[in-house]
Amino acid sequence: MALKKLNAKFNSWNIRFTLSGKPLNILLFSTLFPHGAEPTLGIFVENRMQHLLAHKGVQVTVVAPVPWFPFKGKVFGSYGRSASAPKVEVRKGVTVYHPRYLVIPKVGMLFTPWLLFRSAKRLISKLLKKGMKFDIIDAHYLYPDGIAGSNLAREFNLPFVMTARGSDVTEIGLMNKPAAMICEAADNAQHVITVSNNLKRDLMEMGVDGNKITTLRNGVDLTRFQEKGRSEVRARYGSKPTMVFAGWLIPRKRIDLVLEVTNLIPDLQTIIAGDGPLRAEMESRADSLGIADRVFFVGQQTPEQMPEVYSSGDVLLLPSDREGWANVLLEAMACGTPVVTRAIGGAPDLVTDDVAGRVVDSETPSDIAEAVKDLLNNLPERKAVRDFAQNFDWHATSDGQMQIFEKAIRDYNGTEK
Q: Model-level pTM?
């Protein structure tokens, strides 16, 4: 007990010194973080971190575990890409560690938080022995990352904040045992951040204390996302009205609805940017619908290529069943392209003006097609769409994040653990 009190007192001195001028040392923990073999994985986590670095001058070390797999190569899918991740790399000036953790397919979901914890614990212990110091753990995605992050915070006597991103609440949060583990981790956390108000409401319904939850929406990088190469891309695909979809080709993204809407609007062509397990099936479906000549599957694009993809469209369609805060909506608008989206996740909080696009409270293809046609018939000026997106820069989010971190450290300092 005496040693515990001494550690708490030392932490108190360290925190006061940190908050009085020394940059915060943040340990960002998440399995959703880009690496060389998967440059778009969790790009939204890296983006928020980079803007915090730029606006607040903090110091960040990233621990981004990847599944252990013995073989590298595209033929092995995401596991092969994970195997290709370096053990340590520097991305945009930030050191990123990729310890390996064991994944047990199908039956191992409930063991994953513990396996993640064990993997990260070994690495972080080594970093601390080398003289590195951390003031707070910033964990992204509530399950399994938030659960493991909570255990790491307890192990290393650190305050802990975690961020809900979407399906960790709307899908995993519906499962009894993971939901109970999420609630326990939230109880242990100093604070919980959500990227949309609907995720906050869902967490409160699960039993998480609403006083510990703050919504901090994602922003948009207005420097990167602006109209680029529109005339060149349109020359490549033709002058027909053009709809864009961007995202993983997985069931919850509802690529089937994208194809149905394309089929219902005879003069519409669609560019689908993304890859995933449904690609071959959706290509076959486009062929069976007789629209293969006006649906272009362009595959996964790099972050640097996405402004051209967004700029090429007259409208972007996002018909997902579930989303948290869909970054593609803001990114498209920043490039001047209005959007059509279903009334899911943070969409109603984002698309609040006709200049931004349309929100459809339906999954019926004809209803979504009507919204797309209405927008195509009443297209706003692209500059006006861009101007709307400029209300969503990152400064307010970075300010809010910093306030949460500093309060979390102060609160932890006043609590014996």
A: 0.75
Residue 127 contacts residue 158 (beta carbons within 8 Å): no
Locate 203 and state its tokens.
Answer: 């967490």
Give CA–CA dist 30/258, Å, rounded: 31
State the residue for tokens 């020359």: 235
Grouping H, G, I as helix, E, B as strand and the rest as coil, residue 110 is: helix
Task: Write the CB contacts of 270 (distance below 8 Å, at least 6 apart in sequence).
Answer: 242, 243, 244, 245, 258, 259, 262, 294, 295, 296, 317
Bond prior to 365 in cis (omega within 30° of 0) = no
Cα dihedral 396, 402, 405, 411, rounded to 10, equals -100
Closest among 341, 42, 65, 408 to 195, alpha carbons compared:
42
* Predicted local distance difference test score (pLDDT) of residue 221: 84
Q: CA angle, 384 as apex, 314 and 381 as ends, to 5°?
A: 45
User: What gap in Å lies between CA 362 and CA 211, rounded to an integer?
Assistant: 32
Can you tell me the distance from the alpha carbon of 46 to that of 43, in angstroms, rounded to the nearest whole number? 5
Give, as one character, the DSSP assignment of residue 415: S
Summarised one tens digit per residue, pLDDT across range 138-152 is 999 999 999 999 999
Report the DSSP beta bridge partners of residue 38: 35
Supply φ then ψ for residue 55, to 5 degrees: -85, -30
pLDDT of residue 21: 60
d(CA 241, CA 386): 19
Q: What is the pLDDT of residue 395?
A: 86
Task: Estimate the crossing angle of helix 147-156 against helix 176-188, to 10 degrees.
Answer: 40
Pull the structure tokens for residue 311.
């700029």
Which residues of the chain register pLDDT less than 70? 1-21, 75, 106-107, 415-417
Rounded (10°) angle between helices 112-129 and 147-156: 40
Beta-bridge mates of residue 160: 137
